[in-house]
Amino acid sequence: MSPIRGSREGTTTMPPTATGVSSWLSSLSQRHVLTRKEQSVADSLAAHPRLGSYGSIREVAEKSNVSIGTVTRASKSLGFMGWPALQEELRAIYISSLSAAEIAEHRSHGQDRPAYAWLTRDRDNINSFMKACDLEQLRRCAQLIQKSRRAFVVGLGSYNGVGYALAHSAWLHGYDVRLLSEEMQVVNTIAQLGPDDLVIIMSFWRLYEVTFQTIRACNEQSVPIILLSENLTHDIEEQCTEVIRVPSEAVGFQTSLSTVVSVVQAIIAELIALDPDRAKDAIARTEKRWEQFGLLRSY
Description:
Layout: H1 21-31, H2 36-47, H3 49-54, H4 57-64, H5 68-77, H6 83-97, H7 100-106, H8 114-132, H9 135-147, E1 151-155, H10 160-172, E2 177-180, H11 183-190, E3 198-203, H12 209-220, E4 225-229, H13 234-237, E5 242-245, H14 258-274, H15 276-293
Parallel strand pairs: 1-2, 1-3, 3-4, 4-5
């Protein structure tokens, strides 16, 4: 599968064999030649992973006692196109290394009005996605669903509900899209798929092992993958056909579902627009059965 994002040079950054930012940066530093000042940047990031994940390049430079240019050069020496690409992957590893309790603590500061904080965070997430959104990519995802023989959504945990919404809406509009919500169901189904099928994966915070293995298996079987995520390393993203980065930052331990629901509905809107007659006919057939079975109450 071809890479979607060109944030790294080559494929020098491999998945960390141990958890945490420190071990990941240590592994990178051992595989690249860094100057003394560049090593100072790497050491500072290892010692202050939260700052490295969310701070500005100026703040990182000040903490490392180097110039902003040195931070940029250090990023490139570690195999990235620049500081934004390094920070993106560092943040993915930092968040995935946190426990549930640490995530809650990480997001709890200054939240004396939690309901307001949550609604504001959701608003900011959607605004952030809109600013960076590639509408053509959403259309490409809809086209992948349209041309697939059948599509399967892998959404575990909280995102099972979002996966169900995607599968349900696509099915109503005439497309064979099904939700896989149990690990054994995922394994048994993936084993039977081929290049004419499609897998849609939703993964946020930590990556489930079954999700990681699903990505590997799909690559081995040449099955296209659409990945909706926020914090995954690029070695995983590069195995996918399309990667949509969706903000999910929230208050406390929970991740926000609002933006990914909007993205799913946007893909469905594109899917309907690709073949309006197919969608209209499918809805008409379904509504006829609703009436036959008396599913909806009449007033």
